[in-house]
Design goal:
Blueprint: E1 2-3, E2 6-7, E3 13-19, E4 36-37, E5 44-50, H1 79-91, H2 105-110, E6 118-123, E7 126-130, E8 136-139, E9 142-145, E10 149-157, E11 161-164, E12 171-182, E13 188-190, E14 195-201, E15 203-208, E16 224-228, E17 233-238, E18 241-246, E19 251-255, E20 260-263, E21 267-272, E22 277-279, E23 282-285, E24 289-294, E25 299-301, E26 313-316, E27 320-325, E28 330-332, E29 336-338, E30 342-347, E31 365-367, E32 371-382, E33 387-389, E34 393-404, E35 409-411
Parallel strand pairs: 3-34, 6-10, 9-11, 10-12, 11-13, 12-14, 12-15, 13-16, 14-17, 15-18, 16-19, 17-20, 18-21, 19-22, 20-23, 21-24, 22-25, 23-26, 24-27, 25-28, 26-29, 27-30, 28-31, 29-32, 30-32, 31-33, 32-34, 33-35
Antiparallel strand pairs: 1-2, 3-5, 4-5, 6-7, 8-9
Length: about 425
């Protein structure tokens, strides 16, 4: 069938309730249920059901106005300055030999308690170490990892930080019952071109207490509880629970240009004044339980306007996502693909809050490129469009339920 003149393929189950207007260009005579009206409300409610395997197509046009440009929040205005400062710091450090030559995440985790593993414990007074005395540097309550290997890190510190030195790969950080906060930097930073596996054990809380008002003036500002700088790669896994709290500053988890963030396991809770989990490069969700509360977007991959190298894509193949956002729930500048897992999202208070939204964007699944749904279970309650696609929307699997304050499904092309 066609949405706004662009061909799409549908299958599976779509249950769409559009409050305020019908889905544009959905000429599906066999699929449209009788329109009903909300009790005591003047807004029209229309329900659309597309059954699994149903073949329906029709040329359609819409008088729906073009979607207004959405304001882009620049995430990396201070990244360059912060990374320049990082380069200066790294020039003063002497890189020590790795205590382990292995880089496979499973093998490293299996060795997490053997004689080759360093254990580091935070306290307000400082950091104590046990095991090999190489591969790291301690400066008060600031810890720098500068060699490949496995590092078990625990304890509690009101003003501390962990940094993985730039271009350090093959690092596994086993965070075990760790509570860490910082007013001067991100509690955890994976610097440029690093490769890090974050293995969460027990209860872990990382809190960014930087002053958001200092972002423009402070070259060291990171604006996230976990920061992955340009070219870096971070995989979050494990059996424990992780809280990444950026609610007092900006973001919970943030990746810079060409970064990759993969959520593969653990129970992850993010709290953010701005975006919950964002990466300019690629965001992958393959497992785990992820609970996102964000003042702006929930899950986001949006490079800066002058960034021509970052992918700007999101892939969701597993895990359980629960998102409550003031802006878009899931937003990708380029392609957004869902092949498995579950997504439950409420944006800007839900569909009944559409009139209070104004010109802001609070969509469910949004991409200026293609959106493909080939599996998974998706439940969207949005003040704006529930699915908004800049190019081609394809659905050939999955189970989708929609309650939308604007369009249920919208494709621009």
């Amino acid at each position: 069938m066609y949405v706004n003149g662009r061909s799409i393929v549908t299958a599976g189950l779509v249950a769409a309730l559009a409050l305020g207007q019908t889905c544009p260009a959905f000429a599906l005579e066999e699929a449209i249920a009788a329109a009903t009206a909300s009790s005591g409300a003047t807004t029209e409610v229309e329900e659309l059901v597309v059954e699994e395997g149903q073949d329906s197509s029709a040329d359609g046009t819409t008088d729906d106005p073009a979607i207004a440009d959405v304001e882009t929040v620049s995430e990396d205005r201070t990244d360059t300055a912060a990374e320049d400062a990082e380069d200066a710091d790294d020039a003063e450090e002497t890189t020590e030999e790795s205590t382990s030559g292995e880089t496979e995440a499973d093998e490293l985790r299996a060795q997490s308690d053997d004689a080759t593993t360093t254990t580091l414990t935070f306290a307000d007074e400082g950091i104590t170490a046990a095991g090999p005395a190489t591969g790291y540097k301690i400066d008060g309550t600031a810890l720098t990892i500068n060699a490949a290997g496995t590092y078990v890190i625990g304890g509690s510190c009101a003003e501390g930080s962990i940094k993985v030195k730039k271009e350090t790969c093959g690092v596994t950080l086993v965070l075990r019952d760790l509570t860490l906060a910082s007013t001067t930097t991100a509690p955890l930073s994976c610097n440029k071109s690093t490769q890090v596996v974050l293995d969460v054990e027990g209860a872990v809380t990382l809190t960014d207490l930087e002053d958001a008002a200092s972002e423009d003036a402070n070259d060291d500002f990171e604006g996230a509880a976990i920061k992955v700088k340009s070219g870096g790669s971070l995989e979050i896994t494990g059996s424990g629970s992780l809280v990444a709290d950026g609610s007092s500053c900006k973001n919970a988890i943030k990746g810079g240009a060409t970064s990759t963030i993969t959520l593969a396991g653990a129970s992850v809770t993010t709290k953010a004044a701005n975006n919950g989990i964002a990466a300019d490069g690629t965001l992958n969700v393959t497992g785990g339980s992820i609970d996102i509360t964000a003042g702006n977007d929930g899950l986001k991959s949006e490079p800066d306007e002058d960034d021509t190298e970052s992918a700007g894509i999101i892939n969701i193949s597993g895990g359980a996502l629960n998102i409550v956002s003031g802006g878009d729930a899931v937003q990708a500048t380029n392609d957004l693909t869902v092949t498995g897992g579950t997504i439950s999202a409420v944006t800007f208070g839900g569909a009944n809050n559409n009139k209070a939204l104004g010109d802001d964007s609070a969509k469910g699944l949004k991409s200026t490129g293609d959106i493909t749904i080939a599996g998974g279970v998706i439940d969207l309650n949005t003040a704006d469009d529930s699915i908004h696609c800049g190019q081609v929307f394809t659905m050939d699997g999955g189970d989708v339920t929609i309650l939308a304050g604007d369009d249920a499904v919208h494709a621009d092309d």
